[in-house]
Amino acid sequence: MVRYKKVSDYFKEKFSCKVQKVAVNAGLGCPNRDGSLGTGGCVYCNNAAFNPAYAHLSSGSITQQLADGIKFCSKKGDSGVYLAYFQSYSNTYGPLERLVALYEEALAFPGVVGLVLATRPDCLREDLLDWLESRFGNKAPAGHPYLLVELGVESTLDRTLSLINRGHDFKTAADAIRQLDKRGIDVGAHLILGLPGETEEDFLQHATRISELPISTLKLHQLQVIKGTPLARQYEQNPDSLKLFSAAEYAELLCKFIAKLRPDIALDRLVSESPKDLLLAPCWGLKPSEFSSLLDTFQ
Q1: Which of 1, 85, 109, 254 is the least crowded, having the fewest Cβ atoms under 10 Å away?
Q2: How far apart are CA 185 and CA 94, in angstroms?
Q3: What is the pTM of this model?
Q4: In the prediction, which pLDDT does 49 show?
């Protein structure tokens, strides 16, 4: 059996009861799409692939989305307290006043004890960092809400980041992680395994390099080709231009990756599940429990 620290264990260390993330969509956009940095976005990105049905701008305000999301979670038997998960696009991108208003609206919802902010490492302005530190970090009063900032690192190789049109280098991500940690804010990172041009040696180097940074959690997923992305157009024109993992290949790689990862880093996700109507490839047809069983066949 493959052993690693799970994010549920990490949150047990932080909270005295069960905690559940509830996604919200703040409509904050992305500098790699609106022309500030670029217009095409990252080659693999289609936010619709990971946005729950209840977390849409059409669903209403942050308050309404939280109400719908908590109702949805309660149907599955989940209970306890909640973290408002600002998931779509870059959730530290925008005027400080607007960001603060959105965050505080979420924190005011009954049962919400903190936030998870998914964002880019180049979207952390000094004024926002100062506010985050005063509200959640080293300068916050006792009993302050919890905060985890999830940064899209994606790869530790600059050549790959350039190829996928990420718009920043690895140093930018490393600097952002260190800056957040210095201010007393927990940091999560996100990596994609299988990006174009990378080898197994590169993937394992990611584990070593990310372990050198002060992160608390890590999300991993296999490269997927999602409809409506530049990567999808490349795949449709030339499927052989991308090396996509089979489930067994990815599980075997994960075992090697985890063996090189700092053991105190909590793994928040190992595999991605995109909606079937958006996923072009690879189509494994495995439930999460079935993939976990497959993973456990590798030592």
Answers
A1: 1
A2: 20
A3: 0.93
A4: 56
